[in-house]
Amino acid sequence: MISKTIQDALNEQVRIEAESSQVYLAMASWAEIQPGINNITSFFYRHSDEERMHMLKLIHFINDRGGFAVIPALKQPALTFPSIKHAFDSLLKHEIFVSESINKIVDISLSEKDYATHNFLQWYVAEQIEEEALARTLNDKLELIGDDKGGLYLFDKDILTVTVGGA
Length: 167
Ligand code: FEO
Prior knowledge:
CATH architecture: Up-down Bundle
Number of strands: 0
Distance between the termini: 24 Å
Strand content: under 5%
Structural class: mainly alpha
Bound molecules: MU-OXO-diiron
Number of domains: 1
CATH topology: Ferritin
Largest sheet: none
Order of helices and strands: HHHHH
Radius of gyration: 17 Å
Shape: elongated
């Protein structure tokens, strides 16, 4: 059975993962109407799906541990971006924010001596390391590419091979 404190903290994370899914879905929709970046578009759609999976995993855990997972209202995400680089930059910033939020719940689980939740959260800790590293690599590549259209063509080709997260 989880405590009210843990339940509230996990529900806040449900909201954050749901919001992440919306944020990346908005990026995907914006990318889809930009010419020639079909694989970047698929990357954002896949990323959005991954975040929904992160949310569902939390929902099942809360309910399985005798709590109640609350499905949250979500705010409107950013709909357009000045450039592809801006979109990826905001993806990285968002992942750093998610990591900080996960770390906070890890702290709470330790102070509550809730070792089951602590153990469950380790999957998210590992996942965030991967997601941040990936977002940094993609941003570094885009930084190198600058305004070079040939570079962007190759970036779009390359991103096909990138996998986001894991279940
Ligand atoms: Fe579920 Fe990318 O954080």
